[in-house]
C-alpha cells in the first residue's frame, strides 16, 4: 500500500523510511494520463506539510515543460525514483534524473539488474527487499519491468554504495529473491541517468492513424527498433490519433546508460490508404525538451484498394465502404474498402498491432448497428495478393547502383533504387509501394530494414578520391562535420554515392570513412542534402502521374505508361516530366474570395536560401500613369513567373526617390514584358461612401472583386484595399481606408496607382491571396532553383491563429512542394 497518493489516488508515493523506497509509481484509476506539471505540483503540495517537509524535494522545474527528479535538495542522501511505468502516463513535459548514477562508496544510486524472463518476481513485489544468493547483494526493488521479451528488468535501490551491494555478478546464473519470489540475474547491473523527452504531434491527421516511433542507430543490422511499452515488447502504450508522450533517451541495458542515437527519434504516420507522414526530431540529450512533431495526413485517392478480404453471412443492416468493422471475438478492426458478391468484404486493417480476423467469428460496426456472422478465412487482397496485379506478378525493389538513360539524350543518369514494374500499370505499382511501406510491414525487406520505417535517400555525394571499395549497406561518418549515413548505392565509375538515414550535414571538404571497412573518400564534387518523399517514400502518385523519389528508377513499365512518370536521378534534375513544379499550401481556413474570415496565404520568392524577399525581381520600364490597366517591365518576364494565363498578384514598389510604398495589384495574365491587370472599369461612386466603404449601384463586385484587391480613388489620388465584398454594390476597405472617399468620386479596382518611372521595381509572389480552398497551389515553369517563404495569417477568424511562416527550396523541376500549415490558435490576441 502506498504511504500516500496524489492526483485522485492514481499515483502512489512511498517514502524513504518505508524500506528505502522513495518512489512514485502508477496505481491507475480515474484518468489515463497526467501532465508533468500536474505531478510536479501535486508532489510539491504533498511535501509541503508538517509531516513531510523533512523529505527530500521530488522535482525541480527548469522551465514549465522541463523538470528534474532525483537528488534535488542539498544533502539529499538518496534520489527519488519515478517509475518507468508511470512515465508512460505522463504528458506535457520532459523529465531528467539527477543522482541516479551509482558511484561506489559515495552514492548508492539506482541500478538496473537484467533478469531472465520466466522467473516468479512480479510487479507487485515493488517495495520489498531483493537479495542475490551468490554475492549476498541487497537492495529495494523499486520496479519490476516485465518486457514480455527474453530479458526483464529489476530497478533497484542498493542498500549501500559499497561494493557488497553492487549486484555486479557477470555470470548469468546468480539467483535473486524478492518477497519469496525468484529470478535469475542475466548480467551485471547497469546504472546512469535517464532523460525522457516529451513528444507531441501537431497538424491534421486521420483519427484512425496510429503513430509509431523508431529509435536507435539507423544501420542495416536492425539496431534501429520500434519504441514499445516497457511492459510489453510487442506494442506501444498509447491510442490512435495525436500523441503527447514521454520517451526515454538513454539505454538502461548498457553500462553508464548512454544516449541512444544522439537523442533522435523518428515518428511515422503510415496508415495504408492515407498519404503518409513522418518526422525525425532531435531531442535535447540533457533536458529532453517538449518537442512538436508536425504531421499531415489525408486520404490517398490513388490508394483505395484493400489488402485483406473475407466472406460472411449477412446479418443486420448493410455494410458500406468506409465502415469500420470489428471482429467480435478477435477485436480486429478494419475499414471497409469494397463489397463484392458472396457476400465478400475487402478491408484495410487499422490500429497497432493490427489484429487478424479469425475464421467463423462474427463482425459488427460500432454498437452492433450492422452485423455479419460466420466469416470465412481471411485472405490477402489487392497489392498483398500477386493475383491482383494485371500481370499476376508482384513488382520488386532492388537497392544497388545502376545507370539508365531515361530521357534518351545520350547521357545515362545514376540511380540507386530500381522498381521493376513487371509490366503492371503504375496505378497498381503505386499501391504496392504504399503497401510495402505501410504501418505493420515488417517482413517486406527494403534495403535491409522494415518497410514501415523506410524513408528513402537523403544525401547525394560525388567524389574523385575514393580509396578501397565502398560497399552498399555500410555506415559512413565524415570527419569534422561528424555527419553519418548508410550507403544505399555506390557507382564506382561515376563515383556517385546515395545515402539514407543520415544525421548532420555532409560537406565537400571532410573525409568520409566507412565504419565497416577501409573505404574512405572526400565528396569534393558534391555533398547535397534533399528531402525524402514523406507522403510515400519510394514515390508519389498524383493526377495520373508517378513521381519517383530521388534516386528511384522504374523499369519494365507498361507500354501505356510511357509518358506517365517523372524520375529524379541521384544527381538531381528530372527526366520525362513536364518542366513545371507546384507549390501547394494546405490545411488552410478557406471560403469565398469575398469573405473577411479566411486565411491570407502568401508564398514569396527569396533572394537566397533563408534570405530576404526578392523585391527587385523586375525593373519597371516606366511611363504608365495612374489608372493604367497594364504594367511593363524591362528585360522580359521570366518563364518561372506564375500566372501567365491564369493570373496572380504583383507588387509595384515605388522608387526610393519616390514614396517607397508598395502596391499589391491583381493581374489576369502576362506576356513577354507586359502584365495585364485585373482592372474593373472606372466607375463613379453612388449611394453611401465613406473612408472605409465604397458603393456603386451598377457594380458587379461579387463577380469581379476579391478581398485584397487594390482600390484606387482617382479623384482623391489615394489607394485602399478591399476588406470584404458585402454585395454586388458595396465594398468595405481595410484599416483607415481612403481619406476623403465620397459619393461622386471616380474609382478603379486593380490598376496602376502611381506614375511609374524606370526607378520603380516589380516583384511577383508565387501566391498572394485569400484562401479560397483548404489548399492553394500554383504551377510554375522550372528555370532555376527557387527559394521561397510561406506566410499564412488570420487574426479575423473565430479562432485566430499565430502567424505561420516556413522556408523551402525548389531544387529541381520535380520538387513539388506541399506545405501543411500548422494552425496554432492565438489565445492572446483580442
Structure write-up:
The chain is mainly beta. Among the domains are: 4-98, no CATH class; 111-191; 197-296, Carboxypeptidase-like, regulatory domain (Immunoglobulin-like), CATH 2.60.40.1120; 308-380; 457-529; 680-749, Elongation Factor Tu (Ef-tu), domain 3, CATH 2.40.30. The chain is 4% helix and 38% strand. Strand 40 (512-514) and strand 41 (520-521) form a beta hairpin. It is globular, with a radius of gyration of 32 Å. The mean pLDDT is 92.
Q: How much strand?
A: 35-45%
What Rg do the Cα atoms give? Answer: 32 Å
> What is the overall shape?
globular
What structural class is derived from the secondary structure elements? mainly beta
**Mean pLDDT across residues:** 92
Q: How many beta-strand runs?
A: 65
CATH topology of the domain at 197-296: Immunoglobulin-like
The top-level CATH class of the domain at 197-296 is Mainly Beta
| Major sheet details | 8 strands, antiparallel
CATH architecture of the domain at 197-296: Sandwich
- Helix run count: 4
Name a few traits of the molecule.
4% helix, mainly beta, 7-stranded antiparallel sheet, 38% strand, 8-stranded antiparallel sheet, Immunoglobulin-like, 830 residues, 4 helices
Lay out the secondary structure.
Layout: E1 4-6, E2 11-14, E3 23-26, E4 34-35, H1 36-46, E5 59-63, E6 66-70, E7 81-82, H2 84-87, E8 90-91, E9 94-98, E10 111-116, E11 129-132, E12 138-145, E13 151-158, E14 175-178, E15 181-185, E16 190-191, E17 195-204, E18 212-215, E19 225-226, E20 244-248, E21 264-269, E22 274-275, E23 277-282, E24 290-296, E25 298-299, E26 308-311, E27 313-314, E28 324-327, E29 333-340, E30 344-349, E31 363-364, E32 371-373, E33 379-380, E34 396-404, E35 413-420, H3 426-436, E36 457-462, E37 475-478, E38 484-491, E39 496-503, E40 512-514, E41 520-521, E42 526-529, E43 539-542, E44 545-548, E45 552-555, E46 565-566, E47 580-586, E48 600-605, E49 618-619, E50 630-632, E51 648-653, E52 662-671, E53 674-677, E54 680-684, E55 693-695, H4 701-704, E56 710-713, E57 718-725, E58 730-733, E59 746-749, E60 761-763, E61 767-770, E62 776-781, E63 786-794, E64 801-810, E65 817-820
Parallel strand pairs: 3-7, 4-8, 6-9, 17-24, 35-45, 44-46, 47-65
Antiparallel strand pairs: 1-2, 2-3, 5-6, 9-17, 10-13, 10-15, 10-16, 11-12, 11-14, 12-13, 14-15, 17-20, 18-19, 18-21, 21-23, 22-25, 26-30, 26-33, 27-32, 28-29, 28-31, 29-30, 31-32, 34-35, 36-39, 36-42, 37-38, 37-40, 38-39, 40-41, 43-44, 47-62, 48-61, 48-63, 49-60, 50-53, 51-52, 51-60, 52-53, 54-59, ...
Amino acid at each position: 500500500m502506498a504511504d500516500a497518493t496524489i492526483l485522485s489516488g492514481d499515483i502512489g508515493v512511498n517514502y524513504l523510511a518505508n524500506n528505502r523506497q522513495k518512489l512514485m509509481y502508477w496505481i491507475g484509476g480515474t484518468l489515463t494520463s497526467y501532465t508533468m506539471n500536474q505531478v510536479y505540483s501535486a508532489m510539491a503540495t504533498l511535501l509541503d506539510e508538517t509531516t513531510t517537509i523533512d523529505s527530500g524535494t521530488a522535482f525541480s522545474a527548469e522551465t514549465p515543460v522541463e523538470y528534474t527528479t532525483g537528488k534535488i535538495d542539498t544533502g539529499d542522501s538518496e534520489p527519488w525514483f519515478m517509475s518507468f511505468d508511470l512515465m508512460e502516463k505522463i504528458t506535457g513535459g520532459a523529465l531528467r534524473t539527477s543522482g541516479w548514477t551509482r558511484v561506489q562508496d559515495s552514492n548508492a544510486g539506482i541500478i538496473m539488474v537484467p533478469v531472465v524472463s520466466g522467473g516468479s518476481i512480479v510487479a507487485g513485489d515493488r517495495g520489498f527487499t531483493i537479495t542475490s544468493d551468490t554475492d549476498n547483494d541487497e537492495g529495494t526493488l523499486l520496479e519490476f519491468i516485465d518486457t514480455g521479451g527474453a530479458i526483464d528488468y529489476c530497478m533497484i535501490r542498493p542498500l549501500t554504495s559499497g561494493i557488497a551491494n553492487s549486484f555486479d555478478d557477470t555470470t548469468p546464473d546468480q539467483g535473486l529473491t524478492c518477497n519469496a519470489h525468484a529470478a535469475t540475474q542475466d548480467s551485471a547491473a547497469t546504472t546512469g541517468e535517464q532523460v525522457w523527452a516529451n513528444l507531441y504531434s501537431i497538424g491534421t491527421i486521420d483519427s484512425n492513424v496510429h503513430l509509431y516511433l523508431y529509435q536507435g542507430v539507423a544501420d542495416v543490422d536492425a539496431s534501429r527498433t520500434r519504441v514499445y511499452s516497457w511492459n510489453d515488447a510487442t506494442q506501444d502504450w498509447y491510442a490512435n490519433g495525436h500523441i503527447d508522450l514521454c520517451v526515454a533517451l538513454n539505454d538502461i541495458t548498457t553500462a553508464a546508460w548512454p544516449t541512444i542515437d544522439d537523442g533522435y527519434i523518428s515518428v511515422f504516420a503510415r496508415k495504408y490508404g492515407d498519404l503518409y507522414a513522418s518526422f525525425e526530431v532531435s531531442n535535447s540529450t540533457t533536458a529532453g525538451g517538449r518537442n512538436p512533431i508536425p504531421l499531415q495526413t489525408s486520404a490517398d485517392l490513388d490508394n483505395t484498394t484493400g489488402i485483406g478480404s473475407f466472406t460472411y453471412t449477412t446479418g443486420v443492416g448493410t455494410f458500406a465502404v468506409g465502415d469500420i468493422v470489428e471482429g467480435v471475438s478477435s477485436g480486429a478492426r478494419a475499414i471497409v474498402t469494397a463489397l463484392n458478391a458472396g457476400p465478400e468484404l475487402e478491408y484495410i486493417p487499422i490500429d497497432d498491432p493490427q489484429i487478424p480476423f479469425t475464421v467463423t467469428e462474427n463482425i459488427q460496426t460500432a454498437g452492433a448497428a450492422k452485423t455479419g456472422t460466420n466469416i470465412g478465412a481471411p485472405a490477402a487482397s489487392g497489392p498483398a495478393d500477386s493475383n491482383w496485379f494485371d500481370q499476376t506478378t508482384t513488382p520488386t525493389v532492388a537497392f544497388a547502383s545502376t545507370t539508365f538513360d531515361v530521357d534518351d539524350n545520350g547521357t545515362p543518369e545514376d540511380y540507386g533504387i530500381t522498381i521493376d514494374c513487371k509490366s503492371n500499370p503504375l496505378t497498381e505499382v503505386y499501391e504496392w509501394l504504399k503497401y510495402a511501406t505501410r504501418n505493420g510491414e515488417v517482413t517486406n525487406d527494403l534495403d535491409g530494414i522494415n518497410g514501415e520505417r523506410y524513408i528513402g535517400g537523403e544525401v547525394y555525394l560525388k567524389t574523385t578520391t575514393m580509396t578501397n571499395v565502398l560497399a552498399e549497406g555500410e555506415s559512413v561518418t565524415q570527419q569534422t562535420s561528424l555527419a553519418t549515413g548508410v550507403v544505399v548505392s555506390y557507382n564506382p565509375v561515376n563515383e556517385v554515392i546515395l545515402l539514407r538515414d543520415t544525421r548532420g550535414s555532409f560537406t565537400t571538404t571532410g573525409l568520409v570513412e566507412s565504419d565497416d571497412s577501409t573505404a574512405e573518400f572526400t565528396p569534393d564534387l558534391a555533398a547535397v542534402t534533399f528531402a525524402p518523399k514523406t507522403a510515400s517514400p519510394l514515390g508519389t502518385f498524383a493526377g495520373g502521374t508517378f513521381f519517383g523519389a530521388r534516386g528511384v528508377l522504374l523499369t519494365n513499365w507498361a507500354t501505356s505508361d510511357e509518358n506517365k512518370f517523372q524520375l529524379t536521378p541521384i544527381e538531381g534534375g528530372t527526366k520525362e516530366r513536364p518542366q513545371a513544379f507546384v507549390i501547394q499550401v494546405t490545411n488552410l481556413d478557406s471560403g469565398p474570395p469575398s469573405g473577411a474570415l479566411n486565411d491570407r496565404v502568401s508564398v514569396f520568392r527569396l533572394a537566397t536560401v533563408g534570405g530576404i524577399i526578392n523585391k527587385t525581381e523586375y525593373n519597371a520600364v516606366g511611363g504608365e500613369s495612374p489608372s493604367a490597366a497594364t504594367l511593363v517591365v524591362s528585360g522580359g518576364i521570366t518563364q518561372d513567373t506564375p500566372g501567365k494565363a491564369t493570373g496572380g498578384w504583383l507588387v509595384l514598389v515605388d522608387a526610393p526617390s519616390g514614396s517607397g510604398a508598395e502596391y499589391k495589384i491583381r493581374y489576369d495574365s502576362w506576356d513577354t514584358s507586359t502584365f495585364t491587370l485585373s482592372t474593373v472599369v472606372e466607375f463613379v461612386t453612388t449611394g453611401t461612401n465613406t473612408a472605409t466603404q465604397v458603393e456603386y449601384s451598377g457594380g458587379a463586385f461579387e463577380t469581379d472583386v476579391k478581398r485584397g484587391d487594390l482600390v484606387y480613388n482617382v479623384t482623391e489620388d489615394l489607394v485602399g484595399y478591399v476588406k470584404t465584398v458585402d454585395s454586388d454594390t458595396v465594398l468595405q476597405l481595410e484599416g483607415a481606408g481612403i481619406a476623403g472617399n465620397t459619393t461622386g468620386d471616380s474609382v478603379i479596382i486593380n490598376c496602376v496607382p502611381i506614375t511609374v518611372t524606370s526607378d520603380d521595381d516589380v516583384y511577383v509572389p508565387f501566391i498572394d491571396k485569400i484562401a479560397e480552398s483548404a489548399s492553394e497551389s500554383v504551377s510554375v515553369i522550372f528555370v532555376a532553383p527557387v527559394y521561397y517563404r510561406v506566410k499564412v495569417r488570420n487574426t479575423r477568424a473565430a479562432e485566430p491563429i499565430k502567424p505561420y511562416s516556413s522556408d523551402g527550396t525548389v531544387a529541381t523541376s520535380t520538387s513539388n512542394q506541399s506545405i501543411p500549415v500548422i494552425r496554432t490558435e492565438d489565445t492572446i490576441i483580442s
